[in-house]
Design goal:
Strand content: 25-35%
CATH topology: Rossmann fold
Radius of gyration: 15 Å
Helix content: 25-40%
Strand order of the largest sheet: 5-9-8-6-10
CATH superfamily: Nucleoside phosphorylase domain
CATH architecture: 3-Layer(aba) Sandwich
Largest sheet: 5 strands, mixed, barrel
Order of helices and strands: EHEEEHEEEEEHEHH
Distance between the termini: 11 Å
CATH class: Alpha Beta
Number of helices: 5
Number of domains: 1
């Protein structure tokens, strides 16, 4: 079995449709499943991501791999909106800690900074930014070897003070789902 953790329901929707996942409610968690994939919407922030990973991997110890997928912001306009990246390094900005990840070879690799709040202005030297990856990775590495953990992000904005609409999220992520499926197969 493969696990996918996303922060938002809008990020989950293209995956639910593509993989034909069925909804299952377990306590306060809503999972989406088929025979091979289980998807969990964590909510925003590193703590929510860590809780979701711990719940999912505790419930499914036979899991073969785990992936965090979703949107991120960029300070670098050379990174086009809609570009997809495998994260090779996570910088946890609140703990000043760096994590190095195994990255799938099918995707360009980039560094990512995890913040506890949305970033509303560009920050020099920060290529990609999100709010979940460090919590996701810290929890996942307690259960699985490094090569079975992946973070894949799609650029949604340039650290602007706006939230992408649900349909915009779907469009940004939907075209990358077949490539994501290949990444998961190779994990």
């Amino acid at each position: 079995m493969r696990l996918i953790i996303v922060a938002l329901q809008s990020e989950a929707e293209p995956l639910i449709d593509y993989f034909r996942l069925e909804k299952e409610k377990i306590g306060s968690f809503t999972l989406w499943k088929n025979g091979e994939i289980t998807l969990l919407v964590s909510g925003m922030g590193p703590v929510n991501a860590a809780i979701a990973v711990t719940f999912a991997l505790g419930r499914y110890p036979q899991c073969g791999s785990i992936l965090n997928f979703g949107l991120c912001a960029s300070s670098d306009t050379a990174y086009t909106i809609g570009a997809i990246f495998a994260v090779r390094k996570i910088v946890d900005t609140s703990a000043d800690t760096v994590y190095h990840l195994h990255t799938p070879s099918q995707l360009p690799a980039a560094s990512l900074h995890t913040f506890t709040r949305p970033q509303k202005r560009r920050r020099p030297g920060i290529k990609l930014a999100d709010m979940e990856a460090s919590g996701f990775y810290q929890a996942a590495k307690k259960f699985l070897p490094r090569e079975k953990i992946a973070v894949v992000k799609v650029v949604s904005d340039y650290m602007e003070d706006r939230i992408p609409a649900r349909e915009e999220v779907r469009q940004l992520l939907q075209r990358h789902v077949p490539l994501l499926e290949q990444v998961m197969r190779d994990q």
